[in-house]
Design a protein that fits this description.
By secondary structure, the protein is α+β, with helices and mostly antiparallel strands. The chain has six helices and seven strands, in the order αβββαββββαααα. The radius of gyration is 25 Å and the shape is flat.
Length: about 280
């Protein structure tokens, strides 16, 4: 009996420890949520202004995507910007969404059953809209899966307080590239400057959002991106009969003196204000 009593007491002690750990974790999560909500609310107001102005301005912004099996989708216009939030001002989740599309479809074929299965799963996973037809030759000798896919990509950026991890969790879907990525950032890093880099990414302006999220982009790649954006802007200006935009100076000499510092007495203009006035 003494052995059973000892085991019974050990079980009670273990249960008590687990309950104490659970209560402690819940308390810490609640405290973190309370600390993170002001940052989420600031993000809500920033993104609300960003989306509202994008809807009003409706700028011509075009995206290209490489879609496995279908090839490259080019010149998809961005539109239908939306922001959803739960329980403002006690905000725990935010979702920015928009669509990149053009009014046509892309057709392609896959010639193996396993390939067709994988392609369908890939397109479903990434929210692509498509029709599928299975073609089998005489006596099943030839197999082909025919796809007709809309030139339509849905983009989302989801922000959520991950209280257990003490982080802000960010999930991007089809942002700049087909696929989903999950990141976690500290509350102190979830600032307006961080959101500005996301906004620049959405607008196809030079940005450091990929680096902030863990992707490493070399200086040569960044220079190529700046050059491509400049050429696109110049081509658009020529189409409209306007003067091409000025080419920007290198970052280290862009403002003030050669040390890259801004001129004394000049107040930095907010990114959204510089875009929308």
């Amino acid at each position: 009996m003494a052995l059973l009593e000892e085991l019974k007491q050990q079980a009670k002690d273990a249960e008590a420890r687990r309950e104490e750990e659970r209560r402690s974790a819940m308390s810490e999560a609640a405290m973190f949520r309370k600390r993170a909500q002001p940052a989420m609310l600031r993000a809500y107001h920033y993104l609300r202004e960003f989306v509202d102005n994008l809807v009003r301005a409706d700028p011509d912004i075009f995206s290209d995507y490489e879609v496995e099996g279908a090839g490259r989708l080019e010149h998809l216009r961005q539109h239908d910007y939306m922001l959803k939030a739960d329980d403002v001002p006690d905000t725990n989740e935010l979702t920015l969404t928009y669509v990149c599309s053009r009014d046509d479809t892309v057709t392609f074929r896959v010639f193996t059953r396993d390939g067709v299965k994988g392609e369908r799963e890939y397109l479903w996973k990434h929210g692509m809209l498509f029709n599928f037809r299975e073609d089998v030759g005489a006596a099943g000798s030839a197999y082909c899966g025919s796809f007709e896919m809309d030139a339509h990509v849905r983009v989302s950026v989801h922000f959520e307080i991950a209280a257990q991890e003490h982080r802000i969790r960010i999930t991007t879907r089809n942002l700049s590239r087909i696929g989903a990525n999950v990141y976690q950032v500290r509350v102190e890093d979830f600032t307006e400057s961080f959101l500005e880099e996301l906004a620049k990414s959405v607008l196809h302006k030079p940005n450091t959002f990929d680096e902030l999220m863990g992707f490493k982009v070399g200086d040569d790649v960044r220079a190529q991106l700046r050059e491509r954006l400049q050429r696109e802007a110049e081509a658009k200006a020529r189409e409209l009969g306007e003067r091409p935009p000025r080419r920007h100076a290198k970052p280290e000499a862009a403002a003030g003196g050669g040390d890259g510092k801004s001129s004394p007495g000049r107040k930095k203009k907010g990114f959204l204000r510089s875009l929308f006035g």
